Each structure stands twice: as structure tokens, then as C-alpha cells.
Amino acid sequence: MTMWQRAIPFLPAFVITAIFFITSTAEPGTTPPGGLPGLLAFWIVLLILTALFPHRFGVTLTPSAAVVHNLRRRTIPWPDIQAG
Question: Which of 19, 43, 51, 81 has a C-alpha 20 to 30 A away from that of 33?
Fold first, then answer.
């Protein structure tokens, strides 16, 4: 995957984090839920999940079949695909 394809899933989390920091600086005395440790934990979990899951899901096309990578691996021969 390209850099942009790996970065796009982080966009909603980045926007939410930016909103929390903008609102906390606009109103003195307010902090994001969980404070800075909560946001740090959120980003660490997000990075770990993003690093683990994209490699396990998808479709690989081979000369003889389409291999579907999901929670389980499934190989579909091309004649079955063409017949469907």
C-alpha cells in the first residue's frame, strides 16, 4: 500500500484530536476526555490496530485463482469466478 493509503484511516482520528485540542484551548480549564494520557493511549491503540489489520484483509489475484484474505483465507479458482 502507498503512504496515502496507509494515512487515510488516520484522518478521522486526526480531525477528532484537533477538535479536542482546539476546544480545550478556546475555553481555559477544559481538557479532552481522558486528558493528554487518554489521547496518547488512543493514538497508540490506533497505530497498533492499523499496523496489524491492513495486512490481513484484501484480495490477491494469482494466475490460477483469487485469494481472499479475511478472518479466514479463501481461494476461488478463476473458472468458478467466470462461471458465476
Answer: 51
- Assess contact for 54 and 14: CB atoms under 8 A: no
Mean pLDDT by 10 residues, the chain (84 residues): 75 79 66 70 78 73 92 91 80
Q: Is the pTM of this model over 0.90?
A: no
Q: Is 35 left (phi over 0), alpha (psi -120 to 50) or beta?
A: left
Note whether 41 and 34 are within 8 A (CB): yes
Sheet holding 58-61, edge to edge: 58-61, 65-69, 73-77
